[in-house]
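Changelog-adjacent note: as of this version, every example in the card shows the full chain rather than a window. The one below runs 238 residues end to end.
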Amino acid sequence: MKVVSATNVGNYRKNNEDSYLINESKNLYILADGMGGHLAGERASKMATEIIASDFENAREVKKIEDAIEILSSSIRDANRKIFISSEEHEDYRGMGTTLSCGIILGDVLVYSNIGDSRIYKINRDMEQITRDDSFVNYLMEIGEITEEEAKVHPKKNVLTKAMGTTEDIDVSVNTLKIEKNDIFLFCSDGLTNMIPDEEIFKIVKENTPEVVKDKLLDLALENGGMDNITFILVFNE
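Full-length structure tokens:
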């Protein structure tokens, strides 16, 4: 397993509200994109990544798929509750929240979950988004009100229908996916996918070595505008 990652504040934001954490010994990958007032988004995303990582670190050795599903589900709820309580107790953090994309690889299975619009893609013979965006435009697409192309330029494309820390409880869906040799998994915030079309990401990933891919994706996202924080993790199942 080869892993590369990058984060950048972008060209316009003052703070980097993205956070990510990798535990290669457990094949655990966590990425969060925070939101809120001054420093609140940073706190929310950092709390999410650290709490989930800690819960897996403190758990007994995770060998069964069922155990990973249970730990990931309970950990996301745990992080959500703690972020919500922190926002209620501290005025500076009022209304903070964060997206999440998280996965753990056990043998030939990826156990994963997401909240909000931070995504996980599987890249091999093609590029497939395996997570579902919790966003207003995705809802409109699902009911047939707008097309995928219209969603890309919709004035409310950044409006989320779910985020961690904005309510005391949260619905969590954990999924599994069988992994094939040469599968590549991309965990990313929307600062990457809003700046680079999927077909261009696919081309860069397939035509370059992991380290070159990392540099090219980050450079291109900045060249194309860098309107938001940019964060991604690439996992190569070599």
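Structural remarks: The mean pLDDT is 94.
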